[in-house]
Amino acid sequence: RLSGGSASRAIELAGRWSSYRQVLARLASGTPAAWIEEPSPETREEVTDLLDGMMAWLRDIAVAAVLDDPSRLAHAEHAETLRRQARSVDVDRCVELAFKLVGMRESLEQFVSPRLVASLARESWLSLREVKS
């Protein structure tokens, strides 16, 4: 499900599964403490996992906001958490952040510092968690 039907993406994700699960734990926590207590990723691969996880999670938040069908979620095992987060954030801000993350991923591929990209992604994510207007 997470590979979108792509065999090469599935193989790539399987090789980085542990890192991806750690990203999911942070995203599912819903508290800033999960971001502060754990060190930021430092390598390009770790930051790529972070950005990919964030984008997939934002997609699921948007889906959970408009559909009550867990089978449509890439992270169906987190359906309740995603529904709760969808109620607490503005979906338009999720979409804006997703586009921002795409830009960050492109920057990472153009040799921008992985630490800088990870810090920007973390700060953007935490600002999304601010009170829904």
Task: Explain the overall architecture.
- By secondary structure, the chain is mostly helical.
- It has one domain: Zinc Finger, Delta Prime, domain 3 (Up-down Bundle), CATH 1.20.272.
- 71% of the residues lie in helices and 0% in strands.
- The chain has seven helices and no strands.
- It has helices at residues 7-15, 17-29, 33-37, 44-66, 79-88, 91-109, 114-128.
- The N and C termini lie far apart (33 Å).
Q: Would you spell out the secondary-structure blueprint of this structure?
A:
Elements (H helix, E strand, L loop, with lengths): L6 H9 L1 H13 L3 H5 L6 H23 L12 H10 L2 H19 L4 H15 L5
Helix pairs in contact: 2-4, 4-5, 4-6, 4-7, 6-7
Percent of residues in beta strands? under 5%
Architecture (CATH level 2) name: Up-down Bundle
pLDDT under 50 segments (min length 5)? none
How far apart are the termini? 33 Å
Q: How many domains is the backbone divided into? A: 1
> What's the alpha carbon Rg, rounded to whole Å?
14 Å
Look at the structure and give the CATH class. Answer: Mainly Alpha
Structural class: mainly alpha
Q: Could you describe the largest sheet, including whether it forms a barrel?
A: none
Instruction: Report the mean per-residue pLDDT as an integer.
Output: 85
Indicate the CATH topology. Answer: Zinc Finger, Delta Prime, domain 3
Helix content range of the residues, please?
Answer: over 70%
